[in-house]
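Section 5: illustrative case.
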């Protein structure tokens, strides 16, 4: 019996592409670097946390110390615009309502900074809508390391075999596999069908309408 559903946030539950791109471009401009990237470029940079996003946007030209300072600036700017353009994908809320009615517990497991993740989820879905929200902090390993997924399972009091992990990227699929959880690729997000397929998820769905059918 499936007792829990774990969800990635950016590109799976919420479209955050525009604000992530705006914040990154602002940081680049602050460093005197031309913000030459397209929206699609910024989307391709997302998935392994904000530090990696910036590293890719700066084309790996910053030292670790410079990258740390750039990350601090990014977090400041992104916090200011966190909810300016972010929106829940069509059909997601309805699908989650259905599985909540089935008694399924919900968790968000994301590489977005924890405070940002909590603020976004509680604003867009409501406080306590999700049983658990786990974002990134500097002291824990990020996805695809299974640490945060395992922590969510522990907090939800369920085993890997009692959960399904939903995500829009290969990072999410590998996270699920590393945690021993069934993986579902969500093709409406930030990665292509081909990218998801290459990671060999249990199944790929192209609409949130399919989410309740998996329980």
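Designed sequence:
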């Amino acid at each position: 019996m499936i007792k829990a559903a774990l969800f990635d946030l950016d590109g799976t539950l919420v479209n955050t592409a525009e604000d992530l791109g705006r914040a990154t471009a602002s940081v680049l401009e602050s460093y005197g670097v031309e913000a030459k990237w397209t929206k699609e470029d910024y989307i391709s940079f997302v998935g392994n946390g904000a530090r990696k996003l910036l590293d890719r946007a700066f084309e790996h030209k910053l030292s670790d110390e410079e990258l740390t300072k750039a990350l601090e600036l990014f977090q400041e700017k992104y916090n200011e615009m966190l909810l300016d353009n972010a929106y829940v994908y069509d059909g997601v809320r309805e699908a989650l309502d259905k599985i909540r009615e089935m008694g399924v517990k919900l968790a968000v497991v994301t590489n977005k900074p924890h405070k940002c993740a909590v603020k976004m989820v509680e604003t867009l879905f409501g406080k306590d809508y999700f049983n658990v929200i786990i974002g990134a902090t500097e002291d824990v390993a990020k996805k695809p390391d299974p640490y945060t997924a395992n922590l969510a399972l522990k907090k939800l009091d369920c085993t890997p075999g009692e959960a399904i992990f939903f995500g829009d990227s290969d990072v999410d699929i590998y996270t699920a596999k590393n945690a021993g959880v069934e993986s579902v690729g969500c093709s409406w997000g930030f990665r292509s069908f081909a990218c998801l397929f290459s990671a060999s998820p249990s199944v790929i769905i192209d609409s949130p309408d399919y989410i309740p059918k998996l329980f």
